[in-house]
């Protein structure tokens, strides 16, 4: 199970599809092994960048079963269970935990506007799931339109100890992250694990502000692992040089909409999946996009070679 001490890199898995749009479970197994070989501390499946909303309930469980079979208990697996309705959310969470998930991730429904509404929603979530299900709270206002204040988060964490992790994706959010850790140090907020997203775009800075690692799906997860381990060991300058080399590709991957197509194309080129197909409705790269990716990957290879000398 995940808990408030969880650290490292939880890679958000892509969901592989064949060229005809069908779910590719063979590639799902290969991709899972790829993530583990690159040093993932854990995996997160059925997230937003995993195209979870495009899967049928049967496909979601088939994909989860494949990932859990390949992982075989080597690392914890978090399952995204966010849904418009609380019944569907609770049902998927129950099935995930029964299959061996280490916890579930819940994003707020986009209609929440006030702190009172947000706190009431997570109270309902925790009541529905029961106290034994570890929960990751996803704070992603750019995508969901829900704004969590620091005080609101602190009240939620204090009221619901089963919420053991914050997936921090506010942007700009460094001040929020620093404030949460400062309140902890003052004894005014409970400790939770904080893993950061946004493609890893601010990972070194977020680690410096007190993050415990990353939960994102960048197609070079070994870089995320290197940065988290290096920052933890105090080697910031060295790992930031490597991180900076990856920034142009991270930038391509974090584009709204089109970024997923770039990510899947890179995973395809790295041999992790058999097809870069994004299930419809979804983006598709054109010739200019592919040329830009070629150039970006070439520059990345050259820069990494220079750093290795």
From TrEMBL:
Name used for this protein in its record: Dihydrodipicolinate synthase
Keywords from the named record: Lyase
Gene Ontology CC terms: cytosol
A Pfam family per the record: DHDPS
InterPro entries tied to this protein: Aldolase_TIM, DapA-like
PANTHER family in the record: 4-HYDROXY-2-OXOGLUTARATE ALDOLASE, MITOCHONDRIAL, DIHYDRODIPICOLINATE SYNTHASE
Single GO MF descriptor: 4-hydroxy-tetrahydrodipicolinate synthase activity
Coiled coil: none
Family: Belongs to the DapA family.
Keyword Protease annotated: no
Enzyme class: lyase
Residues engaged in binding pyruvate: 215
UniProt-listed CDD domains: DHDPS-like (cd00408)
Enzyme Commission code(s) on record: 4.3.3.7
């Amino acid at each position: 199970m995940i808990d408030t001490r969880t650290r490292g890199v939880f890679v958000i898995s892509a969901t592989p599809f064949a060229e005809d749009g069908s779910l590719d479970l063979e590639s799902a197994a290969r991709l899972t092994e790829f993530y583990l070989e690159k040093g993932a501390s854990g995996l997160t499946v059925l997230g937003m960048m995993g195209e979870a909303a495009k899967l049928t309930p049967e496909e979601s469980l088939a994909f989860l079963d494949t990932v859990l079979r390949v992982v075989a208990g080597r690392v914890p697996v978090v399952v995204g269970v966010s849904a418009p309705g609380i019944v569907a959310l609770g049902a998927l969470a129950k099935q995930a935990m029964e299959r061996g998930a280490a916890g579930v991730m819940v994003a707020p429904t986009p209609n929440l506007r006030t702190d009172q509404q947000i706190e009431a929603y997570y109270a309902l979530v925790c009541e529905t799931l029961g106290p034994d299900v570890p929960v990751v709270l996803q704070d992603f206002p750019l995508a969901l339109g829900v704004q969590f204040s620091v005080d609101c988060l602190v009240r939620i964490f204090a009221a619901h100890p089963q919420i053991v992790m914050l997936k921090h994706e506010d942007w700009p959010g460094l001040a929020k992250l620093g404030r949460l850790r400062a309140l902890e140090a003052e004894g005014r907020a409970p400790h939770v694990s904080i893993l950061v997203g946004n493609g890893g775009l601010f990972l070194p800075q977020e680690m410096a502000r007190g993050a415990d690692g990353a939960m994102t799906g960048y197609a070079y997860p070994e870089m995320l692992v290197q940065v988290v381990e290096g920052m933890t060991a105090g080697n910031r300058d060295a790992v930031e040089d490597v991180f900076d080399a990856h920034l142009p590709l991270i930038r391509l991957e974090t584009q709204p909409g089109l970024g997923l197509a770039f990510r899947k194309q890179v995973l395809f080129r790295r041999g992790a999946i058999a097809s870069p197909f994004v299930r419809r409705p979804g983006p598709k790269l054109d010739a200019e996009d592919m040329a830009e990716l070629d150039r970006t990957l070439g520059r990345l290879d050259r820069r990494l070679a220079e750093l290795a000398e």
